[in-house]
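Hey, can you fold this?
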Amino acid sequence: MDQYTLNLLVVGASFALYVGIAIWARAGTTAEFYAAGQGVHPVLNGMATAADWMSAASFISMAGLIAAVGYGNSTYLMGWTGGYVLLALLLAPYLRKFGKFTVPQFIGDRFYSQSARMVAVLSLIIISVTYVIGQMTGAGVAFARFLEVSSAQGLYIASAIVFVYAVLGGMKGITYTQVAQYCVLIVAYTIPAVFISLQLTGNPIPGLGLFSTHTESGLPLLSKLDQLVTELGFNDYTSLHGSTFNMFLFTLSLMIGTAGLPHVIIRFFTVPKVADARWSAGWALVFIALLYLTAPAVGAMARLNIIDTIYNNGTQADSVLYEERPEWMRTWEVTGLLKFEDKNGDGRIQYYNDKSEAFKATAEGRGWAGNEFTFNNDILVLANPEIAQLPGWVIALIAAGGLAAALSTAAGLLLAISSAISHDLIKDFLNPNISEKGELLAARIAMAGAIAVATWLGLNPPGFAAQTVALAFGLAAATIFPALMMGIFSKRVNAAGATLGMLSGLVVTCLYLFTYLGWFFIPGTNMMENIPANYLFGVPPAAFGPIGALINFAVAYLVSSVTAAPPQHVQDLVESIRVPKGAGAASAH
């Protein structure tokens, strides 16, 4: 059976499973559409949360970014993991105890203000739309290669699949679909990694293989990789090349941005009790760790395999002839995500850092006239099994896994947008008398509209999947996270403070992000480097989230300190949310 047919069968079977689950778990009420009827088992919710969390950025792009830069881009791994711990400890149980459906609903009730709620709705939509662009981009990349269509056609197919199971099933359908998607994506991610680790190091555990001996050279694998990349003019793989301060800020931005992501937070509204929210968070961390402990090894081994492929196991003077390039390069060239330009006319592929002044003389001495091999970072995880010449069924499996990762998170984000529009904007603001049937219809229409917008934006994304997602984290860090923290842990912050704080964080962060967006998204660069001198204090846009959060906190506390304290019933509500005995059944409904 040829590879294309095998891809169609495996991907088609996974899609049939998702649609079948959506039909089986079709939402019939608004409670099922928004929160799955609050009846999901914590283990299943932990698995669904992990799938919702491990997006195309985690599955497709994170290892690619680590592969391209090395230690400097491990910020993604540290920030996203640390942020989930913050979410699990500081927010999830308390928000579940509040007993509502959406993040804006909590903010509106806690700060007794429709204005605060509308600012939260606006922030949520901006965050979720920005985030979903990365997911649709990742889905387009996967479809482009494995179904041999253009990335635009792949995007349309992904949108159609999400439309079927998200619009039909709501949170109930999405939850059980995400359980299936987690199983697909984690198997798809780990099996190729195990094979490749065995090939390169003899160790079947990729995380341990990363620190094992490279079988062919006898050197530690990371030392071998350092040797190869530095010989080609790149920075060594295992050191930080950039600002430590910016690395800290970016990691913090990802952490507090994670804790403020609406589509992840609403997953904790689906369990029966507050205690179940805590258990869900714990299980989700376990399920997330299975992929995150593997990603650094996948990135390093992919970079090593690419260099060995081009330079015949590291012999730089004898790079591979373009006409004799391996089949995986030919198939990825069709997508436009991998390119070769013979700049010196020798018919061979030269891959090196032609921006390195230190390596310039060496390159010229070899007759090299510039780097001739470029590729999109997002292809590395998907191409890795082909590079390592693994069996066809493994290649098909990773195609299904990449699509599962992109579609699971896209569905969660689209549901967050839909809920904010239908429940917070229409039901509780524009038309309080709307029937449940009318609200359910409005939710589905809003979902369909959000899918259409996400598809349009996904056709022209501003950067790689993980880079686009990084912007969403900065926005969440500057808006939702401070409002939730103050709402839970401060009885003094009032409606005016919260509203103006969120607006300040949103406006300042948006202005900063889009003022420097042109510099931030330079294909093939590390966002922690190439920092123009006119950045504010040299801080790149992706690391601005904590500064936006600080502005939010400062404005909220300053305004609250010079205006009236919240009403007593609101202060009592804050106190009741934090009472430990609430770890039983949720007390507020």
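Oh, and this one too while you're at it.
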Amino acid sequence: MSRSLPGRDRRAVRHPAPVGAVRLGTPRHVAVIGGGIAGLAAATVLAEHGSDVTLYESSDRLGGRVASWPLPGRRTMSRGFHAFFRQYYNLRALLKRTDPTLRHLVPVSDYPLQRPDGMRDSFTNLPRTPPWSVLEFVRQSDSFTLRSLAKVDVKAAMELLRVHFPGTYDDYDGESAAAFLDRLRFPPAARDLALEVFARSFFADPSDFAAGELVAMFHTYFLGSAEGLLFDVPDDDYDTCLWAPLGEHLAALGVTVRTGTPVSGLSVDDDGVRVTAAHESLAVDAVVLAADPRAARALVAGLADEPGLAVWKDGVAATYNAPPFVVVRLWLGGHVHGDRPAFLGTAGYGPLDNVSVLERFEEGAATWSRAHRGSVVELHAYACAAEVATDPQAATAVVARLLDELHRVYPETAQLQVLEQEVLVRDDCTLIGPEAWRRRPGVTTPSPRLVLAGDWVRCDYPVALMERAATTGFMAANELLAGWGAAGQDIWTVPVRGLLRPTPHPHRHLPPD
């Protein structure tokens, strides 16, 4: 493999950083609001190129929506399982700052997808290179039969091979993921196992989720990349092996990291930026707004209507959050069967979307498991009813149903005592709906002093979730640095064109269509 590539895919595309000086010639001070992946990515690149950075994080830990925190008894909790796909080139580039060989990311051998009728699909032992990866998956899967495949709309299926980003996002304006799946006439079982499960990983019901996002995801993970269909996971809790080391790295670069400090006010004008936090006001040259979607909307709403900002502010205000989700972590007084996978996706089990067995990969959970002779199991329910976020009784009902479904999926757990239980309910994730893609706010804004970053921000590349957060963080830093005559961070993506729209110049930047 060429050392210049971020992975094994020789068709990966490099989007070069703007040309400029290695470091800033004139000192600049930037405030980064948000200590999640997007904010950490932006702060890292800015500091590496000579900017003074003050990073604000409202919680007492870095990592944002991928944070973890300690519990009594040497246990930990987080917002749930995250898959670190090998296509996440920019997130991995960020993590390599403190873990150059990514030794803390360990492979998950499989993540089977299961339905109550016994149908189960696997992603192991498949070729990595498209289209052979998908063809072999279809050949092995019981979800596909000759009769069901004959019903597939070939014209719609060909759209998956003719993607061209960013144009593909625009092509599906107004169409939901569910409507696209209906139009595709995909076999129902395959729809549940191979597509809808992944749509729900965006914390949304497919009827509320953008078709363009689904198509981009299908391209990124299945038909457009030779990195394979499996993923890695951290070998310990997120704080221990990812974010605490990165926080130390930032401190060594001179970044002022202020955790437990929510930003309450923001002003931007031609003279500069002022950030208000903890009853203090800080004047800076620019700001990267990388807060979660709801907090970002609130800060933007408080901006004065400077020339050009009013219409843009309306666009930010029009973004909205996904329905609430529920995470239940159980410390059981006995082990689940030894052949249970580290991660199981489910369809048809009520609100249960997946089950993780944490001692299979996380060292802290494995230590607890050895000491207590039990398993640490995590359950997820995405796209819950809105009242789950505000009504404790509704949330309790979801938790009870999740436990019942766990007992259906892994019957042995019905006989195991629950020694400890933690429940987390949140509704702070973004929802990319079927509205016009170009109306979603991007990294740049009407003010050169204000840039956005996060998984809720429009990005023309085929990236999503954690990778969109890292990518827009790099892009935000690059935008500011370019304005000051400094270079930034190269960005890598999977091919931006489908197999039937071959990339003419691999490894080089492609202008948008």
